[in-house]
Design a protein that fits this description.
With about 675 residues, the protein is an alpha/beta fold. The chain has two domains: about 10-90 and about 470-665, Rossmann fold, CATH 3.40.50; about 150-365 and about 380-450, no CATH class. Helices cover about 55% and strands about 10% of the residues. Strands 2-3-4-1-7-8-9-10 form an eight-stranded mixed beta sheet, with helices on both faces. A two-stranded antiparallel sheet has the order 5-6. Strand 3 (about 70-80) and strand 4 (about 80-90) form a beta hairpin.
């Protein structure tokens, strides 16, 4: 074999991976070996370059801060008499669900907590109704992730203490002084955990949670002291209730009632959001699909929490024999059973709608997807299908009505009697709860069994969540960041938000492009190949105003997107943020890119064809308004390939055939026109 070439490359290929489980350099290695014809193997020379996260770093942190770097894996190949240098913009460490059961569970936790960011950005539109919609969405998430979660965890801590005490000392939870000792022990443990958690976390969300944990601890301790020194003597009827819920069970009952109040408050917030969404949808400038998302995601989070909490209690109860011996444990949750029936009923209805959508998709797949696509019969949308949207909206409305009715029935019920004993509706929902559990528990078991196999799906959702994850920006963010790529233009000057995780991903790609700008002065060709969420990073980076030097550093710029969610997801649901490509918003992208090739599978449920604009006939003196503000338009191409889903584009022979043609084929882009 001949020695690897040492001449300057004719072409720079930047690979931006997408969803899946890529290890650093894996995607690059797979692509470099796949694009070569197996009959004419190429010569490969791999290496790694470490770049600073901040371009103004010189290798030392004078301010004492940690110097952060990231690796750029490179491969030099010679193929078809062309010297090509390939490199990988790896970002899997910035957004990826970890391996294993625990990693997937943590990923689900991140997704549920992160849905509020997507909802907020979706509601970030014009008008006071949209403003209150996104504010109420944040309030809804803060109630769930603050007091609801804190009270639930403290309730679980008390049940664990009761079980442990019961094993050592039968019925100890109902004795005179022992319950006070258990309460103080739980309060002390929760307070200590909150102090440690507050000091070690850097997240404002987690800090707020620990604040509510402290508030719950103070509430339970205060109730214990008030009851001990005043309540029992002043209100003798409390003693009667203690016969039904003795000792620690009485305090558990208080927390269950408190949860009921919090859920009722949550339902009222969702009701107010629905009203704001309805009003905002009637404003012409607003994008309705995004407003519906801004309503549905918080409602979905409420539904998820409403399912996870009771299912967790049921699983603990069924798997812990000690709880079966606690004769008063079930009575603590008596009044909550109809509420669980509402959650279970809504979950079953949504599940049936999802099954109907999947059946419709399966019927489409059973035919000839390629022929169906050519005839205009595209695959049914799996990302929040219209049927699913309608079902979730109806379930949200029905759930609000049912929960509000049950709560009011509970509130005005006779003392000592549960509402499920007085209301036929509550009895019906309690029965529904029993039947729904018999259906949901086996499905929940299957879900847990296949949890690890669902990791790629959670990866896709987490990528979207991280794309919209933001934190408020302030003056210090701009003043402290004297980097080449400043955040001022994209965040502070707009007075809005700083999408820190998205910027971290884009920053790496900008560093790589700047590295090659400084490394070579002979203007090689630039090709950016991206997949899935990586295509969003490539598109937005190439549209960055800070990259005005790009065309002077590279002879031609080609963008290749594989399975891009740009139109199918982002333009469909977030058109107020991602307008049509012929809008002035994309003027920098259109001026810089010579060719844009989008390769997609006809059954790709995440990335599909991109809505490219029609070709523009440019005048000799283009106007400065509308689409004619562009003095250049890329050569747009959509290339559909066979049905094989969303992953493994890099190893798809049909995709690779098109990549070889685009990279090394006879189709060449003319030398860039003068600026």
């Amino acid at each position: 074999m001949s020695e690897p070439h040492r001449n300057p490359p004719d072409q720079i290929v930047v690979v931006v991976h997408g969803v899946g489980d890529p290890e650093p350099g894996k995607t690059l290695s797979l692509l470099s070996r796949s694009i070569a014809d197996h009959e004419r193997p190429h010569v490969e020379s791999p290496c790694t370059t470490w770049l600073f996260e901040k371009s103004n770093r010189t290798g030392q942190a004078s301010d004492g801060a940690e110097v952060k770097t990231f690796p750029v894996y490179q491969t030099n190949i010679r193929f078809e008499n062309k010297n090509t240098e390939l490199c990988e913009a790896f970002w899997g460490d910035l957004s990826r669900v970890s391996r294993g059961w625990l990693g997937v569970l943590m990923g689900i936790f991140q997704i549920v907590f992160g849905l509020r960011y997507v909802a907020y950005v979706a509601g970030d539109q014009s008008g006071s109704a949209a403003l209150w919609l996104k504010r109420l969405g944040l309030m809804s998430s803060r109630i769930l992730q603050g007091p609801v979660l804190a009270v639930t965890i403290f309730l679980g801590l008390m049940i664990v203490a009761v079980c442990g005490s019961h094993v050592v000392w039968k019925e100890s939870h109902s004795y005179t002084n022992w319950p006070q000792i258990l309460i103080l022990g739980c309060s002390g443990f929760a307070f200590l955990a909150a102090q440690i958690g507050t000091r070690v976390t850097r997240s404002r969300v987690v800090e707020r949670f620990w604040f509510w944990m402290n508030a719950t601890t103070a509430f339970v301790t205060g109730v214990m002291l008030v009851r001990l020194f005043w309540l029992d003597s002043s209100f003798p009827e409390i003693a009667h209730s203690c016969e039904v819920h003795p000792g620690v069970m009485w305090y558990c009952r208080v927390l269950v009632v408190l949860l009921g109040f919090l859920w009722f408050a949550e339902i009222q917030v969702i009701t107010a959001m629905a009203c704001c969404c309805l009003l905002a949808c009637y404003q012409r400038k607003n994008h309705r699909p995004a407003l519906i998302i801004a309503l549905l995601l918080p409602a979905l989070a409420v539904g998820l929490w409403g399912q996870v909490i009771p299912m967790t209690w049921l699983a603990i109860k069924e798997s812990t024999g000690t709880l079966e011996d606690l004769t008063h444990f079930t009575e603590v949750f008596d009044d909550a059973i109809p509420f669980l029936g509402v959650q279970m009923l809504m979950a079953v209805v949504v599940l049936l709608s999802l099954i109907a959508v999947l059946i419709r998709y399966a019927m489409w797949r059973c035919g000839s997807p390629e022929d169906a696509y050519r005839q205009g019969n595209k695959a049914p949308r799996l990302i929040i299908h219209p049927w699913m949207q309608s079902t979730m909206l109806l379930c949200t409305a029905a759930g609000v009505v049912l929960v509000s009715t049950l709560w009011l029935t509970n509130t005005f019920a006779e003392q000592g009697q549960g509402s499920h004993q007085l209301s036929g509706l509550a009895n019906t929902l309690a029965t529904v709860n029993g039947y729904a559990i018999s259906v949901m528990v086996p499905l929940g078991g299957l879900f847990v069994f296949f949890l690890a196999h669902l990791r790629p799906g959670f990866d896709m959702i987490l990528d979207v969540v991280n794309h919209f994850y933001f934190r408020p920006t302030n003056v210090s963010d701009v003043l402290d960041d004297d980097d080449e790529f400043d955040i001022a233009e994209t965040t502070f000057e707009n007075g809005k938000l700083f999408f820190s995780r998205r910027e971290a991903l884009h920053d790496r790609l900008r560093r790589i492009l700047a590295h090659y700008r400084d490394k070579y002065d002979h203007q090689p060709e630039l090709v950016v190949i991206s997949h899935s969420q990586g295509t969003m990073a490539a598109i937005e980076t190439l549209n960055d105003k800070d990259l005005n030097w790009l065309n002077n550093s590279f002879r031609t710029v080609t963008l290749v997107t594989l399975g891009s969610p740009f139109s199918h997801l982002y333009q469909h649901y977030f058109a107020h943020l991602y307008p049509a490509l012929d809008e002035p918003f994309w003027i920098d992208l259109n001026q810089r890119v010579d060719r844009w090739v989008n390769i997609f599978r006809v059954d790709d449920y995440v990335g599909n064809e991109i809505n490219f604009p029609a070709p523009i006939q440019f005048d000799s003196q283009p106007s400065t308004t509308g689409t004619q503000a562009f003095s250049h338009q890329p050569e747009y191409t959509n290339i559909p390939v066979g049905p094989r889903g969303h992953v493994n584009y890099w190893a798809d022979r049909e995709v690779l055939m098109h990549l070889r043609r685009e990279l090394f084929g006879q189709v060449k882009t003319e030398t860039r026109r003068a600026a």
